[in-house]
Amino acid sequence: xxxxxxxxxxxxxxxxxxxxxxxxxxxxxxxxxxxxxxxxxxxxxxxxxxxxxxxxxxxxxxxxxxxxxxxxxxxxxxxxxxxxxxxxxxxxxxxxxxxxxxxxxxxxxxxxxxxxxxxxxxxxxxxxxxxxxxxxxxxxxxxxxxxxxxxxxxxxxxxxxxxxxxxxxxxxxxxxxxxxxxxxxxxxxxxxxxxxxxxxxxxxxxxxxxxxxxxxxxxxxxxxxxxxxxxxxxxxxxxxxxxxxxxxxxxxxxxxxxxxxxxxxxxxxxxxxxxxxxxxxxxxxxxxxxxxxxxxxxxxxxxxxxxxxxxxxxxxxxxxxxxxxxxxxxxxxxxxxxxxxxxxxxxxxxxxxxxxxxxxxxxxxxxxxxxxxxxxxxxxxxxxxxxxxxxxxxxxxxxxxxxxxxxxxxxxxxxxxxxxxxxxxxxxxxxxxxxxxxxxxxxxxxxxxxxxxxxxxxxxxxxxxxxxxxxxxxxxxxxxxxxxxxxxxxxxxxxxxxxxxxxxxxxxxxxxxxxxxxxxxxxxxxxxxxxxxxxxxxxxxxxxxxxxxxxxxxxxxxxxxxxxxxxxxxxxxxxxxxxxxxxxxxxxxxxxxxxxxxxxxxxxxxxxxxxxxxxxxxxxxxxxxxxxxxxxxxxxxxxxxxxxxxxxxxxxxxxxxxxxxxxxxxxxxxxxxxxxxxxxxxxx
Length: 684
Description:
Elements: H1 3-9, H2 20-31, H3 36-40, E1 46-49, E2 51-52, E3 64-75, E4 78-80, E5 83-85, E6 87-92, E7 97-102, H4 109-115, E8 121-130, E9 134-137, E10 141-144, E11 154-157, H5 166-184, H6 190-203, H7 216-242, H8 257-263, H9 270-283, E12 290-295, H10 301-313, E13 318-322, H11 326-343, E14 347-350, H12 356-368, E15 373-376, E16 390-395, H13 403-410, E17 417-422, H14 428-434, E18 439-443, E19 454-459, H15 463-475, E20 479-483, H16 498-505, E21 513-515, H17 521-532, E22 540-543, E23 556-561, H18 569-576, E24 587-592, H19 598-609, H20 613-623, H21 649-660, H22 667-676
Parallel strand pairs: 2-3, 7-9, 12-17, 12-18, 13-15, 13-16, 14-15, 16-17, 19-24, 20-22, 20-23, 21-22, 23-24
Antiparallel strand pairs: 1-11, 3-6, 3-8, 4-5, 6-7, 8-9, 8-10
Helix pairs in contact: 6-7, 7-21, 7-22, 9-10, 19-20
């Protein structure tokens, strides 16, 4: 690819018109990055047809319609007797009245008078609801009649997050694909042109079939994505073999392992000890370790990783533990630091938050070799970070990092060992294909004393009964998570938004806390810390899936997951793992909506029948469809953008076969590895 195209793909989204730094940060939470390329790889989940109708009588309740309406009158919104009332605009089609409802305060009345002037016709699009009258809540589009063509007849709906609307997604998409042809002009490689043409088709679908896994465009993109990943694996495996006899042989200098075991307040499980035997055997070989440790939620992977780091510290070498989020890095640090202090080992944490003198001091300690264990985020392989002797790299939440990102951190040392951790169990039929460059250890035992989490499903119609039961439990000292899904603006009538649920629940639980991705990180961390404090009066935390990782509250014994049928099995299992981390009997209540499908109920039945993450992963593979998932972070396993594990099974084999034939990657393969496995800029 030409440098001009690379530069465009690497443009920060904040420089796209109408975005800016605040929205770019919100995009980063959803996309996993904030570059133009990150956006292009985030394709719509489904389409919403907006058929034009002349009158509401010909449309069914719940149908999304586009209709010409004559504006008749406005009723001011605001706050009356302590309750918030909406602005209501009464309109008429050719056969009767239609009421548009907008939840804005009185200060927006002038805006709506201008947007919907009395006596004028406007083209309106939104979901039709019927009570005693026809209503469109929060219309998605309102246009002058001469601009009616601005309302799409087919709207692509993107997996979204808090603070991002579908109009924002469409605006960014339109600007990117308007500029793209000029960046591709003159491109010599026809595969590059074909790749971006396939991307254009899935971002501008003409039917639901265009977004299906068997669409010619999605299948092409899925194959290229698999080829990129498999090629990176082949190169990584080849480099590992070439590293033989170039490995640094480190002699033992200190006796630390006995002191480590003595600090543990519990005995390690047989599975943990077996895994450690495999790790220690790797550390003694002349080929750098490349091992993946798979373990269910709460199986004790962190202690295994710490033991490996202590083993490395016995030689005087350093260990870097890479976590996917700032919060998770801080959580690991809080657990590991006290144990290291007892053994006289210097442990530190380094994230993007570290600035100025504090950061400089940490970098000096790393460069001198004084810091033996450092925990952090991507900041660990920033240009200014130097290690005296990086002997071991530990990557937590392995599926969130690409091969090249792992290699970027390994490049900071001289052929260091690599230990990857994953709490999202992968079906055995796929593990060798996905992680073919790594040996695999499985921790399939829970620590002694852990009681199985009792899981039940409950209809939303029984929510008042549930709240009454929770009040009794909380009065008895229980701590409760209440999780709501991420909600798109246009879907608020289908699912409960976290803030709305918080307003409801704090009437019954005055000390309730609220956390979601749109909050300032410091504020969010402060709320989580208060909930984790056993002396705090906060006994219930209403949250989005930001609690999926990064919060450890052993005293929390109940988790309620609302609209559970809208999550993938892997995500539900991860969320359930927020409780049952202590010795208390714990409970998980899966609330399903009124319109739950048979498949949705079957998924919930799997959770009520087993807490074995590997069995759940197998069922997830059999049952799930990517269209049912709320986003890539809910899918578990590996964050593929286009690959459907069921529909593209044969593509795995084709990509693996093609990758095996690679001796020196051609330009197109290098381009693919850059696009799909970014981190060190293989092709740049």
